[in-house]
Write a structure and sequence with these properties.
With 416 residues, this protein is an all-alpha fold. Helix 2 runs parallel beside helix 13, helix 4 packs across helix 10 and helix 4 crosses helix 14.
Length: 416
């Protein structure tokens, strides 16, 4: 009993970091041991994914209903989209700039790379059309995030417009939100064990190969991610929100750890909702409205990686980009990032859209994807972290602008 009390007395983020370190050591020193505990990591990921759809549907609807006035959605939605568009565009620029300066793809041969099928690309018109689900139940079952968000917005707005008749629905949504967040807290206690198993398996299967085969690309991803977080996100928090940067990052460390271990923005959402309210002092209506939107469109890590990988691919293919090509890649990279599904390795396949826009054949793109894909898990884990950071930074800025942030609680940033 005393051991259990001691375990729970340690802040969760410290237990997660310990799990990361132990998992990395286990994967490097005992690959067989890592394989033996793989089931623990898989169960942890399933627990997180189990919560994503109900959390998105219920929290967005409850957040909008709690606003009490649908007209407030205009300013909140405008700020949210504008800030995510800004950080996404800057991320592409950072990724392209790092790729152009470091040139990680120079000298790499694609002769031994096996091409990987990229699938049929979805047109922008079809992406817009799919936002409106033909069958809500089917959209929920498939986890179609944009369709779920659209449905949740309609449910929240409809509950408010219904007035007195909609109050029972509003109360139900608020109650479900409270219950789901408690379930999230329970699941988070499994995090150190799940993270340990996930990291151990990732390092055991491809950790060393990443640094041997495409080490420069891995270093570029890490450097660009740090630039995006420590300059862009920290700058927004310090200069626009006028809040202490150290407190911000200390408050969101749980969400960043989950982002790294699961490599999924949507899987990070339940934890992001908890830290936004508990650690950053953001009001539930704002957190419940902005964070689920960010899980779908806030893709700083994806945007950075697509920009970087685009330069990596051109260098590997021996193509020297001119200013016009760079401008086209910047625009298509930002748009591709906005439409990327919040699942592991999804950004890798958005590379085809960027390269096709500058005349690279799909067969050549498939070779690049085939080269990178075996090592993509650790790269994907790294680039998911700035996406999670961007989501929480934008939510903090929106909450600050809407006077929906408890500054006293933010400055404490107590991480339990």
């Amino acid at each position: 009993m005393r051991l259990l009390r001691g375990w729970f007395a340690v802040p969760l983020w410290k237990r997660v970091v310990a799990g990361l370190v132990l998992g990395a050591l286990l994967g490097a020193l005992s690959p067989d041991g890592a394989a033996a505990i793989k089931l623990v990591g898989d169960l942890f990921v399933r627990l997180i994914k189990m919560l994503v759809v109900p959390v998105v549907l219920v929290t967005i609807a409850a957040g909008i209903a709690a606003l009490g006035d649908p007209r407030r959605l205009g300013p909140i939605g405008g700020r949210t989209l504008g800030l995510f568009a800004l950080t996404t565009l800057v991320s592409v620029v950072i990724g392209m700039a790092v790729g152009l300066v470091v040139r990680p793809g120079a000298g790499i041969t694609l002769a031994g790379a096996a091409p990987h099928a990229l699938g049929t690309p979805v047109s922008p018109a079809d992406q817009l059309l799919n936002i409106v689900p033909a069958n809500i139940v089917d959209a929920l079952a498939r986890g179609d995030m944009l369709a779920i968000i659209f449905t949740a917005i309609l449910l929240g707005v409809g509950s408010v417009i219904a007035g007195e008749a909609g109050k029972p629905v509003v109360a139900l949504l608020q109650g479900l939100t409270a219950v789901l967040l408690q379930i999230v807290r329970i699941v988070m206690e499994v995090t150190p064990f799940g993270v340990c198993a996930l990291i151990a398996n990732a390092v055991a299967t491809s950790g060393a190969a990443v640094f041997v085969n495409i080490g420069w690309l891995a270093l570029c991803v890490l450097f660009a991610a740090l630039v995006q977080m420590l300059i862009v996100h920290a700058g927004l928090i310090a200069l626009v929100a006028r809040l202490p940067v150290g407190r911000f990052f200390r408050g969101i460390i749980d969400a960043l750890a989950i982002a790294f271990s699961t490599a999924s923005s949507s899987a990070t959402l339940p934890v992001a909702l908890r830290v936004a309210q508990d650690n950053l002092g953001i009001a539930r209506p704002i957190a419940s409205t902005v964070l689920p939107l960010g899980a779908s469109i806030g893709k700083d890590g994806t945007a950075m990686y697509v920009g970087l990988l685009g330069q990596f691919a051109l260098q590997a293919l021996g193509i020297a980009p001119d200013p016009w090509m760079l401008a086209v890649m910047l625009l298509t990279g930002a748009l591709a990032a906005f439409g990327t599904a919040p699942i592991p390795s999804a950004s890798l396949f958005m590379l085809a859209a960027m390269l096709a826009a500058v005349g690279v054949h799909p067969e050549q793109t498939a070779l690049v994807v085939g080269l990178v894909l075996p090592f993509d898990r650790l790269l994907d884990m790294t680039r998911t972290v700035p996406s999670a950071s961007a989501n929480l930074a934008v939510t903090t800025l929106v909450a600050r602008a809407e006077n929906a942030l408890d500054e006293g609680r933010f400055r404490q940033a107590v991480v339990e």
